[in-house]
Design goal:
This protein is an alpha+beta fold. Helix content is 53%, strand content 13%.
């Protein structure tokens, strides 16, 4: 009883202090393995692990427990991933791209005040059950369950006629589920799946986009809930381009085709310039948060200067430079020079 009271106090105190704590348990055979917390801002990068998404690294203890805690996450919900790395660190960067057979991961929604627990399930499976102070944390797991049911339907009805009927049915089911969650991030996760050019759903999505006001309504919900988020602008740019692509796919005169191709090219160029400009702006914003001395150190690091060379140029000791670099890693959310170079890549 005392333990339950203490646990309740810890949960509520972490919420009041604006701190998060994500903990869980995996099989003891993972003891000593690295485990990572990632922020997935680009919903098109939710299907696998990317090095530039990682914000924190921890290690599984001898009993299979792990945890992440702090107060540096977004105050609003975002998509996060916990990634259990079953590969050794000397295998290169490939395992960060989901190419390690021993890697496991889970996607979930959370914010800076949440306490999440990932217990081992009754089937002894890890990272597949979520207990959270945030009622929306497990929505992405629920969506994965719906996608499995959808796959079964397609396996049972392989004909073209039934495929079209199933597409119509599942687009409606998934859209309805997304709206009922009252969480546009869950809808974005569904949208990423349905509009993926690699999926059979893509052609149906293009047709649906031109006749269904759901997509414009989702745009409005995103602007209302996440007006400053990059993924909101990304989504708006994508549906604009895809509408033009859908229109281009319809039979038209050669004159109209040339006009549409030109518009599509201008739109695509505009989207590319927008995201390149956004990335450059974000790099400037990161630098502006640093002190003048820290900015100098970052620039020298990006020039591949060694700690000794940087210390000599700034007339300070090597140990002082090491302290500055450790502080920089924390401020920028990176853990190596390579990650810093990626963060400020032009």
């Amino acid at each position: 009883m005392r333990f339950l009271v203490l646990f309740s106090i810890l949960i509520h105190s972490s919420v009041l202090l604006g701190q998060y704590r994500f903990s869980g348990q995996v099989s003891e055979e993972n003891a000593g393995n690295s485990i990572y917390l990632s922020l997935v801002e680009d919903y098109r990068k939710s299907s696998r692990v990317y090095l530039d998404q990682i914000v924190q690294k921890s290690e599984v203890d001898s009993l299979g427990h792990f945890y992440f805690e702090g107060n540096n996450l977004n105050e609003q919900n975002r998509i996060y991933r916990i990634h259990l790395d079953g590969c050794s660190d000397n295998t290169g960067a490939n395992h960060f791209l989901g190419q390690c057979n021993n890697s496991k991961n889970v996607l979930f929604l959370a914010n800076n005040k949440d306490t999440l627990e990932f217990p081992t399930s009754f089937e002894d499976q890890s990272l597949c059950t979520i207990s959270s102070t945030n009622p929306k944390s497990g929505l992405l797991l629920e969506i994965e369950g719906l996608k499995e049911h959808m796959a079964y339907d397609f396996a049972d009805y392989p004909s073209e006629a039934n495929k079209k009927l199933n597409l119509d049915k599942w687009f409606k089911n998934l859209h309805s589920f997304g709206q009922e969650t009252n969480e546009p991030l869950a809808e974005l996760y569904i949208y990423d799946f349905l509009s993926d050019k690699r999926n059979e759903t893509f052609r149906f999505y293009l047709e649906d986009l031109t006749s269904n006001d759901y997509y414009e309504n989702l745009s409005e919900r995103l602007v209302s809930t996440y007006p400053e988020a990059e993924f909101t602008q990304q989504y708006r740019a994508e549906i604009t381009t895809d509408k033009e692509l859908a229109s281009f796919n319809r039979p038209k005169s050669s004159k109209w085709n040339r006009t549409i191709i030109a518009l599509l090219a201008v739109s695509l160029l505009g989207n590319v310039l927008f995201f390149l400009g956004k990335k450059k702006q974000n790099s400037y914003q990161l630098l502006e948060k640093l002190t003048p001395q820290e900015q100098k150190i970052v620039n020298l690091m990006l020039e591949n200067k060694t700690n000794k060379e940087i210390a000599s140029e700034l007339f300070v000791s090597v140990s002082t430079i090491k302290t500055h670099i450790n502080n920089l890693y924390k401020k920028l959310g990176v853990s190596s020079r390579e990650e810093m170079a990626l963060r400020f890549k032009k």
